[in-house]
Amino acid sequence: MNGPAAVVQLAGIVLAPLLPGAIQTLKARLQGRRGASVLQPYRTLWRLWHKSAVDPQGAGVIYRGAPPLVAACLLAGLAIVPVAGRAGSFGLGNDALVLVGVLALARFVLAAASWETGNGFALMASARELMISVFGEALLVFAVLIAALPAHSTDLLAMSHAAAGGHIWSGPTHWCGVIAFALVILVETGRQPIDNPDTHLELTMIHEGPLLEYAGRDLALLQWAGAARHWVILVLGAGLYLPHWGGFAATLGLRLAGVGVLCGALALIETEQAKMRILRVPALLGVGCAIALAGAAMWIGGVGI
Amino acid sequence: MERAAGSLDLDHLGGLLRRMPWTGGAFLVGCMAIAGLPPLNGFASEWLVLQSLLHVALHQPLGIALAGAAALAGLAATAALALLCFVKVVGLVLLGQPRRAECAAAVDPPPGMLVGMTLLALMCIALGLVPGLVLPTLAGLAPGASGATLARHAGMVVPGTGSYLPLPLALALAALTAALLGVRGRRRSAPAPSWACGQPVVAALSWSSAGFTKPLRLVLEAVFRPRREIEVVRGGGMVQSVTYTGHVPSLLDASVYEPTVRAGLRAASAARRLQSGNVRTYAGYLLGLVIGLLVLVYTGVLG
Fold first, then answer.
1. Closest residue by Cα to residue A86 from A298, A239, A299, A257
2. Does residue B158 lie within any of the structural domains?
3. Contact A153 B160 (CB under 8 A)
4. A57-115 confidence digits (pLDDT tens)
5. Are residues B9 and B94 both part of a single domain?
6. Same domain flag for B214 and B279
7. pTM score
8. Which one of A144, A211, A273, B253 is CB 3.0 to 4.6 Å from A193, fit for a cystine?
9. What range defines the domain where residue B215 resides?
10. Mutation for testing the B interface, residue in A97, A160, A214 having most B CBs under 10 Å
11. Angle, vertex CA A262, rays to CA A293 and CA A224, nearest 5
12. Which residue in the set A72, A138, A221 is minimally distant from B173, CB to CB?
């Protein structure tokens, strides 16, 4: 019964690079350029896979081990996040907060790798990413809380079932959750206005920074991990906060359409918005937290259910 | 570590993981556990506390529920803060280049001194992998624990959650990492200098503990109110030297302890004026006390 779901979950491994590719292509079209093909990330991965790696001065076990470990964390994330309200039995559970922990582990490993080489730009980017994550994490658990309210559980399967159908949209709480999760998507995927994924200026890099010195297969693994992060977060967002109903096939179709819509929205935001001054990001995330808390208060207080 | 490296100042260590693999390894495990990373014991506790706060928000009346929700977000932010803090400690102490000659020559202490640390690190890992074994016992200790007990299970299978199963998670992470290492194959790599925009990489460019937390200090400026002084010495139309000092005054010190200490000292100096050292003054105090007591008795205040 869960076989097809497991297949779709595992398909995420192959499909993940499509998402950044689609966003880049859409963005180019919106900006009046022709842009690269949707398949460009695959070509990049292929090219990187056939290049040799680079060991900067001071590189050791942690620097070399970080790319596989980060990719493994994201693979575990793919196994935890259900698709279309179902999940294969990978034996890792489907808890939302465990997913938060696994993503934190990936962040830790990458930051430790930047400390090992001591590269100034990588460390600056790590410091910024971890600073943003202090506020992002608070917002993320608020978004989890709002999705858990109707389900009375942090089980992603139960949360996804509770968010199905139209009745959930009649109250204000779910809408507040949508806003909060939209900000979570921007933080976790490192998109504008919080981070600029296209930047090649070391001083402005956040998520790209710790990857600066990697090359070859190491970089390929890390870039795949970045794409998988898009997949995990967008599939989660589509599952918890976009409308869906019906059986497995219908839900799956709606989920994939939802992920497509989210990619479109990200491309649109990147076209319309400049990158924000980094010191103002916490204020943005704070507003998100306030909205989420108000939403939770309305649900608990029994408004509009 | 202090014995081997001669200092505990974060900005004076570095590169110790390579030189003291046992001590460094135990230190790394401890830091990862305290930063709340799966699959270690810190994350198991953090997960439980987050879950309980979240379920407070789910099941309690409005006021308590909102307090639970706020505490939930606060704890999540604190966990992220702990991660920032401990990745910094790991980076400054264990990784990078040694910042002093003593660190470069540091070696692991004799086995007797390693046993304690290694044992504690192993316990962090063991408790992290099978936290479910102690969970029913802990749940039974809770005040007002109902008769219903949790089934004993290696992972944490708790109703109302999606279950945290650290042992499979750890095995999966290890197996996947090993598989990816295999897929990556024999690593062909070229040595290269670290990229610093073409400058030679010198010790002065290495990051300090203050630098890594600078973004956080900047965004929380309104709360911490850091002070800094920059002194620029000019001479002959050129900047000769720049000195920079900065520190973050402790809020509690400034707003609670210092006023309390000041008030205490003022009260003490007032009290000292009573203590003249003159016997006649003390006799006067005694006389005053006796008269005062008599007056109280006479008026019936003391019954």
1. A239
2. no
3. yes
4. 878 889 989 999 999 999 999 999 988 777 777 878 888 899 999 999 999 999 999 98
5. yes
6. no
7. 0.86
8. A273
9. 208-247
10. A97
11. 105
12. A72
